[in-house]
Amino acid sequence: MTKAIVKKLLSIILTLFFVSVLIFLVFQIIPGNPAEIILGTEADPAQIKALERELGLDKSMFQRYISWIGGLLRLDMGESLKYRMPVSTLFLRKLPVTLTLTLYSLILSIIIAIPLSIQITLKSDKWYSSIITAITQLGISIPSFWLAFLLIYVFAVKLDIFDTLSYNAMAGGFLQRLKSFFLPSLAIAIPNISTIIRYMQAAILDEINKDYVRTARMKGMTLKEILYKHVLKNALIPVITVIGMSLTSSVGGSLIIENVFALPGIGSLIVASISSRDFPLIQSVVIAVAFLVIFINFIIDIAYGLIDPRIRGGK
After folding, report:
1. Are 24 and 62 in contact (CB under 8 A)?
2. Is the pTM of the predicted complex or chain greater than 0.90?
3. First vs last Cα of the chain: how many Å apart?
4. The ABC transmembrane type-1 domain covers which part of the protein (predicted)?
5. What is the Cα gyration radius of the chain?
């Protein structure tokens, strides 16, 4: 197990290196001069050149990359060109909104998907089982941002239950903040719910066909008793990977959904930095998000190996 962890850590380092190079190169080819954007189109060329030297934009691409990656290794994310303050400060201010949205969407996914998966299995001959299966297929196919607009139209415009632009971290209590996150969390959760249901239903059906279930049925246990006492525990093991995938997709989905619902998180910060060509901010925030996603996958892999003895023994 220790050897497997070391291999994964080395893989993470290599992955982050290639991601950093890709992120840096992508943002270098985006048209627009940050110095001109900061000073304005009417600025004197000499002023623009002086600001380029101050910001390090007159250096070669390789020098800028080495300077940037060296700062990251020292936990220095650089300074924002637009806000003229440390990127780490901006990132930490916005991070709680993104993490809260991600966490709420994951909780919604789990508390809805697992009971539905069980009910579909227990009532496989019922008409609503087919309807839920069709809905899950639809949920997988529809993009989160389209679901977001649909939820806004139904629950905010038509029914007037939610005010989607009322988020204020300091206003109201816990329930008010929870209400602000409900629709965006649901928009992210629906595709994840559909995916978890599909995988968990398959895992439960696979367990039900095993010998220990047939033996338990012969001893007089009902399918419901077997499901809760034996099957569910075994079926959840492969589903952990899917839940981990849902967590990482929730992080990515939150970056998009934040802009739809005007939530002041990392996603809104990225959009604002792109429009102003704030390269230090964009690069550092994107690499931080990439690290967060890779780290989550690492934790899920380790947890999966600890939970499933067969994997731990194989490694």
Report:
1. no
2. no
3. 5
4. 95-304
5. 24
What b/e readout covers 105-124, taking b as 16+ CB neighbours within 10 angstroms? bbebbbebbbebbbebbeee
pLDDT digits (tens, 9 = 90+) for 94-150: 888 888 889 999 999 999 988 888 887 777 666 766 777 788 888 888 888 888 899
Which token pair is 42? 């009417």
Is-contact 271 257, C-beta < 8 A? no
